[in-house]
Amino acid sequence: MTVLEPSALAHVPFVSVANMMRLVNDVGVEAVITELADYIEADFRRWPEFDKIARVASHSHDGVIELMPVADAEYYGFKYVNGHPKNTREGFQTVTAFGVFASVGNGYPLLFTEMTLLTALRTAATSALVGRYLAPPNAKTMAMIGNGAQCEFQALAFRALCGIENVRLYDIDPDATEKATANLKTAGLNVTACQTAEAAVEGAQIITTCTADKQYATILNDNMVGAGIHINAIGGDCPGKTELHKDILTRSEIFVEYPPQTRIEGEIQQLEEDHPVTELWQVMTGDTAGRTDETQITLFDSVGFAIEDFSALRYLLDKTKGTDYAEMLDLLADPDDPRDLYGMLQRAGAGAPA
């Protein structure tokens, strides 16, 4: 069979898991998170320029598969991501993802990449970026309830961007806490493993909740949250899943990414549809206030939005351009005559047995 060499237009830069790990280890986890946060903040500040929709979700008994698209005048990006809480019991990741970044002008992909690691990094970068605006000044201690795959990224992001020094850990699975404790101590943080969620929040100025089970749950009770706390609630990501008692919401100033999505998937699905929330992009542009006083309870009702993935893809495209972190993948058909796709197929098969 004749083998036709692909043209340059057939190639799309691809960042594999191995190369993503190499990039992050070469640059440094906290440096990558800090650089990602700059890209996310820049894109949030031009929020009205984006063509936005809530993610498209396909729910099943076992979990959810989602597509997260967004575009501006120049680029289009999307992420494929799943969420299956049962997966760890079967040897699979709870969350996996890949993404594509493309030119709006001709529709050609500019980058194809793993996004399991990149999502963990961008989620942490977004949380800590929001913490810059909403957390108490000079906060040094964060409680981390839920010590799974996202835990270490969150702790390192809040150290890099907000200056935390102490992390108090709790998970219903002691093995998860033991894993996170070892990893974060190695990274140089002061870590306290706690036996209960109540113990974890003692003395914390920031509380991060990040659990996996897709159900209405009460990870934080109202009496666990005192004045002046910032809550980074990142576990909510689908209808029917919450982590906070409703009374916490009514005491808090609530900040969200994209209200049409958050009202369906976030903590505020427990509230009336007209309950007031503040959009984070308006805080970042200075159009509205973030934290206003030391007694205020601020709540980032985070569900993850496609612009954050767009920013991460844009960052990765810039970071890998002209490097060996991306390898060329023969992904696109490119006939000599753009109208003759069939002819390309025939020529490739010339000489093959009938």
Describe the overall structure.
Belongs to the ornithine cyclodeaminase/mu-crystallin family. This is Ornithine cyclodeaminase. InterPro entries: NAD(P)-bd_dom_sf, ODC_Mu_crystall, ODC_N. The protein is of the alpha/beta class. The protein has 2 domains: 8-117 and 308-343, 2-Layer Sandwich (ornithine cyclodeaminase, domain 1), CATH 3.30.1780.10; 123-305, Rossmann fold, CATH 3.40.50.720. The chain is 33% helix and 24% strand. It has 11 helices and 18 strands. The chain has helices at residues 17-27, 29-44, 116-134, 151-162, 174-186, 197-200, 246-251, 259-265, 280-284, 306-320, 341-348, and strands at residues 11-15, 51-52, 56-59, 64-71, 75-83, 97-103, 109-114, 141-145, 166-170, 190-193, 206-209, 216-220, 230-233, 242-244, 253-256, 278-279, 298-301, 327-330. Strands 1, 2, 3, 4, 5, 6, 7 and 18 form an 8-stranded mixed sheet that branches. A hairpin with a 3-residue loop joins strand 4 and strand 5. The chain is globular, with a radius of gyration of 22 Å. The termini are close together. The relative contact order is 0.18.
The tally of beta strands, per DSSP, is 18
What is the average per-residue confidence, as pLDDT, rounded to a whole number? 93
CATH topology of the largest domain: Rossmann fold
Q: How would you describe the shape?
A: globular
Helix count, per DSSP?
11
Residue fraction in strands:
15-25%
Described by strand count, sense and barrel closure, the largest sheet is: 8 strands, mixed
Percent of residues in helices comes to 25-40%
Instruction: Determine the structural class based on helices, strands and strand pairing.
Output: alpha/beta
Number of domains: 2
CA radius of gyration is: 22 Å
Sequence of secondary-structure elements: EHHEEEEEEHEHEHEHEEEEHEHEHEHEH
- Give the termini separation: 11 Å
CATH architecture label name of the largest domain: 3-Layer(aba) Sandwich
Can you tell me the residue ranges where pLDDT is under 50 for at least 5 consecutive residues? none
Given this structure, which CATH class of the largest domain is correct?
Alpha Beta
Would you identify the CATH H-level superfamily of the largest domain? NAD(P)-binding Rossmann-like Domain
